[in-house]
Amino acid sequence: MELTTKGKEALKKERVSCLISDQNISKIVIFGSFVTSSNPTTLQIIHETLG
Q: Which residue ranges make up each domain of the chain?
């Protein structure tokens, strides 16, 4: 599935919006081929919690 930069941004915002309401999360990191490729095979998301 080929994604444009605009499509990637929309997908990132959608994923982040699922996690952002958790007040214990201090950092969200998105990485994998999703970041560097127009035809990504992976999208990894990690989050750091407070405390």
A: 5-49
